[in-house]
Amino acid sequence: MDNNENKYLVGLDIGTTKIVCIAAQKIENGKLRILGVGKSESKGIVHGEVLNLNLAVKSIQEAVSLCKKSCTNMQLDIHEVYVGIAGSHIKTDETYELLKRENPEEPITEDDLKILEERVNKTDIGVNNQIITVISEGYNIDSQHYVTNDNILGCTGKQID
Predict the structure, then answer these.
(1) Fewer CB within 10 Å, N or C, the chain?
(2) pTM for the whole thing?
(3) 49-108 pLDDT, tens per residue?
(4) DSSP structure class, residue 9
């Protein structure tokens, strides 16, 4: 499926009581057309934690298989899946990092933002925890607030936080 009109998304929600797999096709104006849905009983998962990997895998495989079967008039070939992660073991934290720039006249680049993200990824979060992802809520350049990466790329300043 090469052209944009035929691209599809597959989502997987792994819960304590059920596992749901849904396939959708991207259509105009950012909308989605549901192609198929598969649902199975969740086994091996309690409160968002996998306690029995083999049972959890079988439940996921069943939901995906049912989703594929429910896609009428097409063979769904899955290469990428968006997975929902939840549970009492998942939490979010806010952190703050600062980058003092050697040459404040040079434009801010993706490399500057990568340095900040690397610093965030090195934040001490405890022994039994790990960072799943870093999502930027915004940046400040010399005390001026910029919401997205695109807004600050090419700007100049002494420090980014």
Answers:
(1) N
(2) 0.59
(3) 888 999 999 999 999 999 999 987 778 788 889 998 777 777 788 888 889 999 999 999
(4) E
Structure tokens at 93: 């934290």
One-letter amino acid at 19 equals: I
Question: What's the pLDDT score for residue 11?
Answer: 95
Tell me the one-letter amino acid at 123. T
Q: How many CA atoms lie within 13 A of 70 on its CB side?
A: 17
CA distance 108 to 104: 9
Calculated CA dihedral for residues 100, 103, 107, 108, nearest 10 degrees: -20
* Residue 2 confidence class, pLDDT cut points 50, 70, 90: very low
What token pair was written down for 127? Answer: 């022994």
How is residue 102 annotated by DSSP? Answer: S
d(CA 23, CA 36): 5
Residue type, 49: E
Nearest to 14 by CA among 67, 83, 73: 83
Q: What is the dihedral of CA 103, 108, 109, 111, to 10 degrees?
A: 60
